[in-house]
Amino acid sequence: MAAHLDLTRRAALADEITALKLQAFLTGTDESLFDHLKGRALGVRVSELGLTVLEDE
Q: Which of 2, 14, 23, 24 is geometrically suited to a Cys-Cys bond with 28, CB 3.0 to 4.6 A?
């Protein structure tokens, strides 16, 4: 999903999800696509070893 939106639209989508108090699963292969969500959402990396919670940096 994230790769199909530019930064402005990704940020607007995150604002709407937050405003509506929704739970959403946003997927992508590049963590940098989700930088604008740090501090606002739980980031999780999925691998063959399981799930790893990403730190807010």
A: 2
